[in-house]
Design a protein that fits this description.
The complex is a heterodimer. Chain A is mainly α. Chain A has 14 helices and 2 strands, in the order ααααααααααααββαα. Chain A has one domain. In chain B, the strands form 3 sheets. A two-stranded antiparallel sheet of chain B has the order 1-2. In chain B, strands 3-4 form a two-stranded antiparallel ribbon. Chain B starts with a helix and ends in a 21-residue tail after the last helix. The chains are: A mainly alpha, B mainly alpha.
Chain lengths: ~325, ~450
């Protein structure tokens, strides 16, 4: 096969978009998760939990804008098809993101008596956004099926993704906090992990059976052999992490970041599986990435900028995370 | 109702809500940098106190801007799939560059700017403020470039009904772009300076005579007084640019039906599109010819030259008048306040009372101006390339109506909460005066915890 740009560009952009979605799910996953865990936390703990995500959430959400932006600019046809089919869940997602984003700031600035109200709105926004994302994933996996089966499956995935985000949130808290709250976070992680594993199992089983094309991609010798590490490794990581929760936190707080990194790895494996299932389609079984792509010259000019800017973005994002490294302290405007 | 008009109302509602917050953050970033640099230069802690009061407003406005901005990026797909289908090759890269070069920069350094004063060196903190302010401005650059391209498209060719880029320089710096960018940046500057002046006047009325109040008040008033004449000039230039490239919009702004010389400047009228005439017209003879052509016999385009191809007259005519009227009011108020502050070193109470509601005059003028130019582009979404009616998505009207209703309720509640918090912050600052512990400044050991205010 000879290399030519019109073939390569959509592929590159599909990878970039996948990367942006994966980074988004991992990063906003933990701060959405912390919003969900708000329901189970005491007042004083809520302030610490907010402090653990305060400096990051704006940048985390930007990855969603980049992912949707890339879908919009690189695959305009798919952007229209997917988003009109998911009109109501997209609306709920946005509603949730708006509510939690503003609650985040309002809760710290309103008179003390009104803070409770904004705490509740922060929880509500986080859970709505997480459920909406899960529902959209479920419906997308079944090929944008919006019939009863699709809706039921969407609801199942919604619950499980919310649980997975809660697990991410708990894992982040294990890294960023200490004392009682950290111990609580370990228990939260253990509980949420079971539901998250169940969700991943459900998606993994449903995907091949929803489409014979995907079934054939997985259950054919020798592909089955090459692909087997994906599910096996995910399962092992789940079990290992679950066992770890009985020993956390370690003395001297060693391995505090390990649960988060393990979960991130599980997300990445699951994501790789989905990517394999759907490639080369961007709208399942309807539009391939080449059919949906923008004109090559427009993709090229975006790529030129992306190649230069993306490493810089990743570099200064790391810098921002490093500045606010260590255990979360009271968040002050100074 | 039909999905087209509902989608337009929904998009209009979303973007109107969205623009309120960038209109603040674009210029407020630079004002914060000014406070910071004054503090660096003088060591006067009142500047830092002003910084910490207004950085909270910045944080809140930024959050409102981010969440409403995320909504916008989805709505292109949910409500206007035809837009990206036709001009995606042009709009896509511009939006992508906005996200890549600006959005990430702001979001990443905002954390350091807001919460990092004690974690990084003073120099890095100042740099973070510069990057956030610069990010918001670069963001405005790309968005204005795209919007201007939709108004006055250039540098492209149509192949099979789809726009393809030919000359990116011509696309970005299209004919109306420099004018619109300057007009919008100045509008943001005015919005912020009147907001700062207004909230400081509120503190003044509540008996606050602290140094930080005076510093913020003077900054707001003097910036406003300096920017408003520049804005009036820039607006006039933008109008002449529109006359050249979008004459039907000018015709609607002036409610002028017939092309010809000696066109009067209509001060008040109820344009009647069915009868194609103005009712209850009050006009200055030859005024429009004089303003637009700088001669009483100058020919001004009329709406009847563009049958079925001109924007609805009533909203464009009135949007323009509200914007200009607010601008005149801004000129009077800011110059009077500047006079009293400069010569008398005081602020008369009645003037302070007027300045409080004028704190929101920037929002009013900005919205009225955007309504004028965006409705003035109709029936086109991209002038001469794509009609708005051809871009709307296949979504059921009931879906659009339902979501629209929820958005509207949400936006009203959020606006009330936002304004409530601004007033609360101002009154709290008024009560604390110069006595509050100063966060983050070297001689104050305890900083005020933002999370438990």
């Amino acid at each position: 096969m000879t290399f030519d740009w019109p073939t390569a560009l959509p592929l590159i952009f599909a990878s970039l978009m996948g990367l942006a979605i994966l980074i988004y799910v991992i990063l906003d996953g933990f701060d959405l998760g912390i919003g969900i865990l708000f329901a189970a936390a005491e007042d004083a703990e809520q302030d610490t939990m907010i402090a653990a995500i305060g400096p990051f959430w704006d940048a985390n959400e930007t990855w969603l804008v980049l992912a949707v932006g890339l879908l919009l600019v690189a695959f305009p046809l798919a952007h229209g098809t997917i988003l009109t089919a998911l009109y109501i869940p997209v609306f709920l997602l946005l509603l949730g993101l708006i509510l939690r984003g503003v609650a985040f700031d309002f809760r710290a600035k309103v008179p003390a008596g009104r803070k409770h109200r904004w705490n509740r709105i922060f929880f509500l926004g986080s859970i709505i956004a997480s459920l909406a994302q899960g529902y959209m994933l479920g419906v997308y996996v079944l090929g944008l099926d919006v019939g009863f089966g699709g809706m039921a499956f969407g609801a199942l995935v919604a619950l499980c993704l919310a649980a997975a985000y809660a697990a991410m949130g708990a894992a982040w808290l294990i890294y960023k906090t200490e004392g009682e709250l950290q111990k609580k976070a370990v228990v939260w992680l253990r509980t949420a992990l079971v539901l998250a594993a169940l969700g991943m199992l459900a998606v993994s089983l449903a995907t091949p059976f929803a489409s014979p094309r995907i079934f054939d991609k997985w259950f054919v010798w020798p592909q089955m052999l090459y692909l087997s590490p994906l599910p096996i490794l995910s399962a092992l990581l789940f079990v290992w992490l679950w066992r770890q929760t009985f020993h956390l936190p370690r003395p001297d707080d060693r391995h505090a970041l390990t649960p988060f990194l393990t979960l991130a790895a599980i997300f990445a494996l699951g994501f790789a599986g989905l990517a394999w299932s759907f490639y080369p389609f961007v709208v399942p079984d309807k539009l391939t990435i080449w059919q949906a792509a923008s004109a090559p010259e427009s993709l090229a000019i975006i790529l030129a900028g992306t190649v230069v800017v993306l490493p810089i973005i990743i570099f200064y994002s790391f810098y921002a995370y490093r500045v606010f490294g260590g255990k979360a302290t009271d968040l002050t405007y100074d | 109702m039909d999905p087209l008009i509902l989608s337009r109302i929904q998009f209009g509602a979303n973007i109107s809500f969205h623009i309120l917050f960038p209109a603040i953050t674009i210029a407020l970033g630079w004002v914060l940098l000014f406070f910071k640099l004054r503090y660096n230069a003088t060591g006067d802690s009142a500047w830092m106190r002003a910084y910490f009061t207004w950085v909270k407003v910045f944080a809140l406005s930024f959050a409102m801007g981010v969440v409403s901005g995320v909504t916008m990026s989805f709505q292109f797909g949910t409500n206007w799939p035809g837009y990206m289908k036709t001009v995606g090759n042009i709009a896509g890269p511009l939006l992508a560059y906005e996200i890549l070069t600006a959005f990430f920069l702001e979001a990443a350094f905002l954390g350091i700017m807001l919460f990092g004063f004690r974690r990084v060196s003073n120099r890095i903190h100042t740099l973070a403020t510069v990057l956030v302010a610069g990010g918001t401005t670069v963001s405005a650059f790309w968005i204005i470039a795209l919007n201007s391209w939709m108004q006055t498209p250039a540098g492209f060719e149509m192949r099979d009904g789809v726009a393809h880029a030919v000359d990116w320089w011509a696309i970005v710096f299209n004919p109306s772009m420099p004018y619109r960018l300057v007009h919008m940046l100045l509008a943001s500057g005015l919005t912020v300076s009147f907001l700062i002046a207004g909230l400081s006047a509120l503190r003044y009325l509540y008996g606050d005579r602290s140094e930080s109040m005076w510093k913020a008040l003077r900054t707001g008033v003097f910036t406003a007084a300096m920017l408003i004449p520049i804005q009036i000039f820039a607006g006039d230039q933008h109008g002449l640019n529109t006359l050249e490239h979008q004459p039907q919009k000018i015709a609607a702004m002036e409610a002028n039906w017939n092309t010809g010389p000696n066109v009067p400047l209509v001060l008040f009228a109820l344009p009647d599109e069915a009868a194609r005439e103005n009712r209850f017209e009050i006009a200055i003879p030859d005024g429009a010819s004089l303003v637009l052509r700088h001669s009483t016999s100058g020919v001004v385009p009329g709406l009847n030259d563009y049958p079925g191809n001109h924007p609805p007259v009533f909203p464009v005519f009135w949007g323009f008048r509200i914007m200009v009227g607010t601008g005149v009011l801004m000129l009077i108020v800011s110059w009077s306040a500047a006079f009293f502050l400069k010569r008398r070193h005081s602020l008369p109470k009645p003037l302070a009372l007027i300045m409080v509601p004028m704190g929101l005059s920037g929002w009013l003028a900005t919205l009225a101006g955007w309504y004028t130019t965006e409705i003035g582009r109709q029936p086109w979404l991209v002038t001469g390339v794509l009609k708005t009616a051809d871009a709307v998505g296949p979504v059921a009207g009931s879906h659009v109506a339902l979501t629209l209703a929820v958005y509207l309720i949400l936006y009203v509640l959020l606006l009330i909460a936002y304004l409530g918090v601004l007033v609360h912050l101002a009154l709290k600052a008024a009560k604390d005066g110069d006595a509050s512990p100063l966060p983050g400044v070297m001689n104050a050991a305890l900083s005020q915890p933002a999370v438990s205010e």
